[in-house]
TrEMBL record:
Residues 76-382 form the Tryptophan synthase beta chain-like PALP domain. The keyword Lyase applies. The gene is thrC. This is Threonine synthase. Keywords: Lyase, Pyridoxal phosphate. One of its GO terms (molecular function) is L-serine ammonia-lyase activity. One of its GO terms (biological process) is L-serine catabolic process. InterPro entries: Ser/Thr_Dehydratase (IPR050147), Ser/Thr_deHydtase_PyrdxlP-BS (IPR000634), TrpB-like_PALP (IPR001926), TrpB-like_PALP_sf (IPR036052). Its cofactor is pyridoxal 5'-phosphate. The keyword Cytoplasm does not apply. The lineage of its organism: Bacteria, Bacillati, Actinomycetota, Actinomycetes, Streptosporangiales. It comes from the Bacteria.
Length: 405
């Protein structure tokens, strides 16, 4: 049995097939993202899901459904198998006693971007790529820079000047070639695109969905959730959506597991959560459109979801439609208040993007879109520790001989 059962790449829009054994970016026919396809019949014949329990507690336990061909090409820092925690007290407060949090704060580099980086970097190195370049809102750049360092790959990272400061330090520590732009991730994307075009094939473009393997790492969140629930699906999954790769990835994973016969029944309703200051997916969803439009003046404290025009917008909207899901916005004020509530009631210091998803769960319960007895999973996509500015400290300073009584 091969380590990976990757068979080919398929365009997510026009369906054209592409060779998976050489570096690929977008579909050469229509310019859309490519998706990895596997020989699922071979996986079904060789693997029983129950056997997975005995494998390593990281995302590589799903190696047949990942694109890395050779076990020796795996670059890992131990990513995956994050906790799926009951949030009973907070859940009771918002009317969802069966609420769960998939906590991606407990993963190398402190955000779920480690999953995409582990798989994307491993596959890039396996295909002989030596230098990667990517635009980022911070966390992905930090993860790719650090995993790149471990794999011996050079990285060029371009991020907005106001991206979380720690991500900049992570890049610098890793020895990455880091650049800051006084603009948005879309401006960083243009700069990377120019560099790649002028590089004569020496720099590979690893932008979100412009390479096909980051999504494969992120889809493992979906596989883990159902494995942790005993190969059952929850009723609803809420995901803070920027580029939307995690949401598209979870949807893809659940389709693969269904085709394998490892799960059955209706899929979880997927919810794309965005900030009121940057909500291209919500606007497109509400208007019944198949693609989003560039969101002018994008701004939110939940920096990872500040993406004015996601490349995979049509795939996000398809995933929402196929799962009877929805798309909602929350304000920065709402998500910052929720962050405090979650920490105070559950002891979990979540990132602002995760807090946005909690705020959305509260809203959707209040509107009746989620029912009280439903099992709901909120993805906390990163550690609150990476964003120290979300909470202002108001603590009196005592003199050295001070007392509290
Ligand atoms: C913490 C965090 N949450 C969510 C997102 C959004 O992820 P995606 O681009 O997959 O929608 C990001 C992206 O930077 C992030 O850093
Ligand atoms: Zn195509």
């Amino acid at each position: 049995m091969s380590f990976s059962q990757l068979s080919h790449l398929e365009c997510g829009r026009c369906g054209a097939h592409h060779d998976s054994e050489r570096p690929q970016n977008l579909c050469t026919t229509c310019g859309s993202p490519l998706l990895a396809r596997y020989d699922l019949a071979a996986v079904r014949a060789a693997v029983d899901p129950g056997e997975l329990a005995g494998r390593s507690p990281d995302l590589w336990r799903y190696h047949e459904l990942l694109p890395v061909r050779n076990r020796r090409a795996v670059t890992t820092l131990g990513e995956g198998m994050t906790p799926l925690l009951p949030m009973s007290r907070y859940g009771e407060r918002i009317g969802l006693p069966r609420l769960l949090m998939k906590d991606e704060g407990l993963i190398p580099t402190g955000s779920f971007k480690a999953r995409g980086a582990a798989v994307g970097v491993s596959r890039a190195a396996e295909l002989g790529i030596e230098r990667l370049a990517m635009p980022t809102n911070g966390n992905a750049g930090a993860a790719w820079a650090l995993y790149g360092a471990r794999a011996g790959l050079a990285t060029t990272i371009v991020m907005p000047v106001d991206a979380p400061e720690i991500t900049r330090r992570e890049c610098t520590a890793s020895g990455a070639d880091l650049h800051l732009v006084d603009g948005l991730i879309s401006d960083a994307g243009r700069i990377v695109g120019e560099l790649v075009a002028a590089s004569d094939g020496r720099v590979f473009d690893s932008s979100t969905l412009k390479e096909p393997y980051r999504i494969e790492g992120k889809k493992t969140m979906g596989i883990e959730i159902v494995e942790q629930l005993g190969w059952r699906m929850p009723d609803v999954i809420l995901y803070p959506t920027g580029g939307g790769v995690g949401l598209i990835g979870i949807h893809k994973a659940l389709n693969e597991l269904r085709e394998l016969g490892w799960i059955s029944g209706p899929p979880p309703r997927l919810v794309a959560v965005q900030a009121e200051g940057c909500a291209p997916i919500v606007r497109a969803f509400e208007r019944g459109e198949r693609e989003s439009r560039y969101w002018d003046g994008a701004h939110t404290v939940a920096f990872g979801i500040n993406v004015p025009k996601p490349l995979g917008d049509f795939l996000i909207l398809e995933a929402l439609e196929e799962t009877s899901g929805t798309a909602v916005t929350v304000t920065d004020g709402e998500l910052l208040a929720e962050l405090r509530q979650v920490a105070a009631l559950e002891g979990a210091f979540v990132c602002p993007e995760g807090a946005a998803a909690f705020a959305a769960a509260r809203k959707l319960r209040a509107s009746g879109w989620i029912e009280a007895d439903e099992q709901v999973v909120v993805l906390n996509t990163g550690a609150g520790l990476k964003y120290p500015g979300t909470v202002q400290v108001e603590a009196p300073v005592l003199p050295v001989d001070g007392h509290l009584i």
